[in-house]
Amino acid sequence: MPIDLESRGPVAILTLNRPEALNALSPELLDELEERLAAVERTPRAQVVVLTGAGDRAFSAGADIGHMQSASALEARAYARRGHEITDRIEDFPKPVIAAVNGYALGGGCELALACDIRIAAESARFGQPEVNLGIVPGWGGTQRLARATSLGFAKEMILTGRPVDAAEALRVGLVNHVHPREELLDRAVEMAEAIASKPAWTIASAKALCNLALDGDLKGHLQREIDAFALAFTTPEQREGMTAFFEKRPPRFSEL
Ligand code: COA
């Protein structure tokens, strides 16, 4: 199963479970994540969600580069839309979602964490938006939500350089609320989830929805522009070179194109 669902009292733990590909977010995994979220929504006992990744290496290394490598712009657009459907679903989910980031959270993995209400991380976590190395732009909300979570300048640095940041730096810039040793991460996330679940469910749902308005601006409009730019990248040779280089395990050669 690409997504595991475990119940601990009022807490539903969803685990991205594709460790052999560092929990990369294939279309199948996204479909199952959506199904699992729907199941949690229908279960009154499940009041708070913790989202994490299987294994010690990754929360998620992002969108599935294998799926994107030879995508047309139209196919890329559909994939961006799919990622946006899931991240919007999490952001608007009527129950709080806490990301417990246990390793790499790169590209779509970082964007998935950004859609969650609260992020906590293991000391080993690494956040990044490395899309520029693949000749594309972030396509699942990163261009808008990273600046909202940190600052515009810091988001631009991460997105324009592709540089990953470690857990300590993520804590400093407000990308995560707490950092814990790896072995304690899930328990700490469940503790926080239980504290939230002890409050009245409707006040929590209402407070979450209100908090989401705080930074809204025209988020949905800007997210639409991001989908367009992501699709456009798939008409370029840089996207083909970036993704080919990834699988050939070598640096991309953009300047020679
Ligand atoms: N999509 C598809 N497969 C991925 C993947 C992704 N986003 N990220 C990692 N994988 C696969 C690798 O292809 C590899 O598969 P293989 O064992 O069949 O060769 C496996 O996961 C392990 O990754 P590998 O690159 O060998 O591990 P590493 O320790 O050398 O490097 C990372 C780890 C995270 C730095 C590296 O995998 C990486 O840069 N991944 C891509 C991150 C990215 O650009 N994400 C944004 C996508 S838009």
What features would you describe in this structure?
Strand 1 and strand 2 form a beta hairpin. With 257 residues, this protein is α/β, with parallel strands linked by helices. The protein is globular and about 55 Å long. It has 2 domains: 195 residues, 2-enoyl-CoA Hydratase, Chain A, domain 1 (Alpha-Beta Complex), CATH 3.90.226.10; 56 residues, Lyase 2-enoyl-coa Hydratase, Chain  A, domain 2 (Orthogonal Bundle). The strands form 2 sheets. A 6-stranded mixed beta sheet has the order 1-2-3-5-7-10, with helices on both faces. The termini are far apart. Helix 4 crosses helix 5 and helix 5 crosses helix 6. The mean pLDDT is 95. The protein has 11 helices and 10 strands. The protein binds coenzyme A.
Count of distinct strands: 10
- Termini separation comes to 41 Å
So, CATH architecture of the largest domain?
Answer: Alpha-Beta Complex
Give the overall shape, derived from the CA principal axes.
Answer: globular
Multimeric status of the protein: single chain
Task: Give the C-alpha Rg.
Answer: 17 Å
Major sheet details? 6 strands, mixed
Bound molecules: coenzyme A
Strand fraction: 15-25%
Write the element-wise H/E pattern from the N-terminal end onward.
Answer: EEHEEHHEEHEEHHEHEHHHH
Q: Order of strands across the biggest sheet?
A: 1-2-3-5-7-10
Instruction: State the helix count.
Output: 11
Query: The CATH topology of the largest domain, please?
Result: 2-enoyl-CoA Hydratase, Chain A, domain 1
The average pLDDT score comes to 95
CATH class label of the largest domain: Alpha Beta
Summarize the amount of helix as a percent range: 40-55%
Corresponding CATH superfamily of the largest domain: 2-enoyl-CoA Hydratase, Chain A, domain 1
